[in-house]
Write a structure and sequence with these properties.
Helix content: 55-70%
Number of helices: 3
Strand content: under 5%
Largest sheet: none
Distance between the termini: 44 Å
Low-confidence stretches: none
Mean pLDDT: 91
Shape: flat
Radius of gyration: 19 Å
Length: about 70
Amino acid sequence: MNLNTVSIFDLSSSEKLQLVEDLWDDLAATTSEVPVHEWQKKELARRKANLMSNPASGLSWDEVKRRVRSRYGR
């Protein structure tokens, strides 16, 4: 065991966030390798069908951001 190894739990908050961002970017670059479960595919299909049959049920991106910011104060 290498005692000079740093645990991810020893990183600062900003370093952890950077690590998460780097991991996310890496996953996003290889989306074909990210598993999507059958239940997730079914849920996405259900939501798409709902939106297609009732377009007014959807929210604009601006409305989504407004709701999130009002809920979490940002």
